[in-house]
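User: Before I run my own analysis I want an independent prediction to cross-check against. Here's the chain; please return only the structure tokens and, at the end, one sentence I can use as a sanity check.
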Amino acid sequence: MQYEISHPQLLEIRNGTYAETTFGPDQVWYPDRWLRKSGCGPTSASLLMAYYAFTRPELRSLYIADDLTRHSFIRQMQEMSRFIKPGMMGVDKISKYVDGVIQFANEKGITLSPHVFEVGEKNNGRRNELQGLADFVSKGLSSDSPLGFLVLSRGNETHLQNWHWITVTGADITEDTILATASDEGKKISFDLSLWYHTTSMNGGLVYFTA
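Assistant: Structure tokens:
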């Protein structure tokens, strides 16, 4: 079964008044050199907040501007980086992402509840059945939320990057496969989430929020 956020066009960020668009933001937009290198966490969180703001009137204050131009979105990214601050290892734990988002929302007078699916290191070379991950992804997308996705090790899925946050926007789920789409560095990518789940050697996971 296929799942997707209701308004994927809201992920298209215009380059000023030009027709050129990107599918979500890119961390290289940060003026700060360190954030250009390590700011994938606050970049992904900025996209979640923007989507919530434009699809839920009561959450409108989660986005800093009135339009989805690159200039405005950079302001959003800079604001988010105050709350999700990459350390020497970047944003390498889901808890850092979650805590930053909650603090950001609280400052806007909004309470968000996190929903987290954590993937631990392999136990004897195996992980739990795929159904739990499939249920989590389908529930998040069905609630009309993109999902922040932490990839520390890409495993055998070469379409992903190591030590990176991206934003999942859709999935085609069958009994034994999850084929996902995501915003990654301003591009729409497709990858096998189930392959990552079965072969990644490190921690990782997904998160979304509800009000």
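Sanity check: Residues 36 and 208 are 24 Å apart (CA to CA).
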